[in-house]
Design goal:
With about 130 residues, the chain is of the alpha+beta class. It is about 25% helix and about 20% strand. It has one domain: HIT family, subunit A (2-Layer Sandwich), CATH 3.30.428. Helix 1 (about 45-70) crosses helix 2 (about 120-125).
Length: about 130
Amino acid sequence: MCHPAKETLLWQTPKLRVIAVNDEPGVPAFCRVIWQEHIAEMTDLLPAERQELMEAVFKVEAGMRHILRPSKINLASLGNMVPHLHWHIIARFEDDAHFPAPIWAAPKHTHTHPLPDGWQQKLAAYLRGQMPNG
């Protein structure tokens, strides 16, 4: 995460970037908000930086809800395998491969929920403020 490579970049600021995650099997709509500087924990950030990070997480969640209309959004900040501060924003659908279990559980069936064409580009436009929030 410190050295981005082959990412689908949706939006970035000097302090963070938002990427689409395309390599998680059975999870069709998954984004990460990644803090650019190598920091492991939220409390390592200054209060204003924490606010900036969480505002980005909320903005991604709002955009995914607006564009995808999921049954639920999951938010997670884990980082056990990669101790670099990042948040997962995952759109969940009742017919996704893992629902209602976490996406890292064994799949229950094949994902069948169709996503809107170009949803990643639409989310990128939303994050840049080029798409209505409503």
